[in-house]
Amino acid sequence: MRFRLRRAQDLRDAIVKGLGFQAEGLKVSGFDVRDALVGHAVAYEFDIEVGRKVLPVRLLEDVSRWDFVDLPIFRSQADADDTALAEIRRTGTGSIVEPTLPPFQLAGPMELWIQNGDDVRLALPHDVDAGTLKKVVLSDGAVVTVKGARAVSLRLPLELPLPLNRTTYKGRLSSLISIAQALRGAARSNQKPLLSLRVEGPVSLSSTPSMSPKDKLKLKRLAPGQVELSSQAGAIPAITEDEDEPHNPGLWPLLSLNGSDGSLQGFEELLASVLGKKAGEKGTFKLLKARASAQTYVKMAFTVEKKLAEGDVNWSNIPEWKTKPKRMRAHYEVLARVEEGQAIPERIAQVQPFQANEAMSESVLTGNVTRSKMEIVHPPPVYFTL
């Protein structure tokens, strides 16, 4: 369910519509945007083509921290202008800080296309003024650390080999390492970089010593807005089977990903389940889309009440002495993504905010029988009691 909303009322109406409820006789309570929780997480999107089928995969990291934040997207225009003016007076700037991806390392041979080329900062290791950059080519062995990126995505589809062979690395079998080795081998054999990524946001590229702390990157201008970065230390050796060296890189081209990390096992199992029988057959599959982006999410809780009509509930399983409710109440939680000043609901789940415990008197448990009709039970005596 995807809606683009600008007001809290729009978000409320979209949620009611998405749940399939009729507006008549429906009451939504507890829907207060001032109680909204705001958090940041990284979202992953993949489109995998197997045969003639395109299978979309969407993954979302758990939000590590939720905070109470006043959302400007739900304010009126006058309130938003007053808040923006107060923010400018307090901090000297009116810009809104957007979430960014954690710093990550990229290794060549590959090419980077910078979306915001006017705000790129190069440190090799000293700051270099390269002007407006649109394209950065990383030669084999060049490693850079990318900071401040809002998103990184695949520009051109990739054709990946099958079957999914599993390589032993640091005591763990990994099929992702085999894919990374095949990609790197294909990139080295071609004249042009096989892998092409797009980076969004004002980023900084800094040199990352791969072999020696004295290793520095050399910059070569290819054309206006295009540069090439090369390493003096040469190419990074590939991971070999059963190798356990401390300087071993991670999964090429993302050296920040450790090939022995057990958390990648879930992704490998997901990929194997998506491919199905083709995972063990010889051939190829395509990665049409791959995107990792830092997102802002909003979590809100609300209650839906609906008047019960005759026949809506089966009262046969409920004791006669219980009070029959006239309204049905359910608690929900909505998770929405904030994008371009709009809230897009992504998940609505029913929650149980409390555990309902029933307490009954002794007369109810005994069938409302008087003491005179109850059987007299004499417990065994305790001889150690004074």
Automatic annotation (TrEMBL):
<dbReference type="InterPro" id="IPR053283">
    <property type="entry name" value="TUNICAMYCIN_INDUCED_1"/>
</dbReference>
<protein>
    <recommendedName>
        <fullName>Tunicamycin induced 1</fullName>
    </recommendedName>
</protein>
